[in-house]
Amino acid sequence: GDSVTQMEGPVTLSEEAFLTINCTYTATGYPSLFWYVQYPGEGLQLLLKATKADDKGSNKGFEATYRKETTSFHLEKGSVQVSDSAVYFCALRGKAAGNKLTFGGGTRVLVKP
Amino acid sequence: DAGVIQSPRHEVTEMGQEVTLRCKPISGHDYLFWYRQTMMRGLELLIYFNNNVPIDDSGMPEDRFSAKMPNASFSTLKIQPSEPRDSAVYFCASSLVGISTEAFFGQGTRLTVV
Question: Is B102's CB within 8 Å of A46's CB?
């Protein structure tokens, strides 16, 4: 079945550093890919998404490109802020899996001033 | 729209008691998902519905767990009897139909079973 694998955390960075969180997936067909962010004590909220190969999703300085050849959707941000400290989840949604939304294990990011 | 609304936000109960978690999805959404989040197991999909019909409940841990969606605006997740290992944050999410649409999450219910 569908699955998502993302790098384990925690990832600790200094402010203004470059952030990369790796995400790879296994799915039948052509799923849509998502990044969600969870701030402490809150639910998950959508950060960005891409619905077909080579699409780039972007939001709040974060970017991720849908790479079908490597089945990857890595999240990047050029200069992180303390407010970016959160848990980030990669997810996919595919028709072959009945429109189920499948998440990776989450990566905790801590940005220090 | 107020978003996905879950109640209660926090629940503390004694082992063996029945617990009912509630969810009101966003109006017009076709899909409803129940997830459980723990430090050990991360975010697990328990069950999801399409147009009020359960599609996949393979993630429900055991018979103590049950979920219903009697109409398009309300769903419940019930645990009977509850056990300490059920302590977790339970999230409800809803979405429109289509794999390109995102799911919107509620704030979650933090359940503690003592």
Answer: yes
